Amino acid sequence: ALAQHLKDPVVDVYLVASAKEEVGAIGALYFTQNHRLDALIALEICPLSSEYPIDDGEAPVLLSQDGYGIYDENLNEELRQAALNAEIDLQLATISGFGSDASIAMKLGHIARAACLGFPTQNTHGYEIAHLGAIANCAIILKSYCETLFN
To answer: Can you give the residue range of the structural domain that contains 18?
Structure first.
């Protein structure tokens, strides 16, 4: 959906569907090793669990930290502003038993700035269940981000 609607991004944008994330972010690390990036925003599932303050529904989740490290505060602020511009509510969370392509690439020194935007998901393995509105809202936020020049 994002590729269809993103016409004039203010920055260079690579839309990457990576492979083997759960066994070490192999696809993303290959990409980040071979491309010079200013930032990496992972689009991920966000596990619903009683231990995490995340509600199921249309509101995407922006992670501040996961099991691999702390996400970039400035990049997260830009994503919050993009969500505000698009009039989409965001949930903010820190989760421990989780890692994204972005946090793994940042921890290994492939990128300096990383963020993770996710959609609340039940059953993170097997039959994953997520609100389609949350997935659509992630795409809208990313479109808003790609069309806004941040300082």
So the answer is: 2-146
Q: What are the φ/ψ torsions at residue 60 (nearest 5 degrees)?
A: -65, 170
Helices (H), 47-115: 73-85, 101-107
Which CATH number characterizes residue 22's domain?
Answer: 3.40.630.10
- Position 151 in a domain: no
Domain assignment present for 138: yes
Residue type, 49: S
Segment-wise mean pLDDT, segments of 10 residues, the chain, 151 residues:
77 76 73 86 90 93 95 97 97 91 90 94 85 95 90 67
Question: Is the full-model pTM beyond 0.85?
Answer: yes
Phi, psi angles (nearest 5°) of residue 108? -85, 5
Q: Where are the alpha helices (DSSP H) in the chain?
A: 2-5, 26-34, 73-85, 101-107, 132-146
The count of structural domains within the chain is: 1
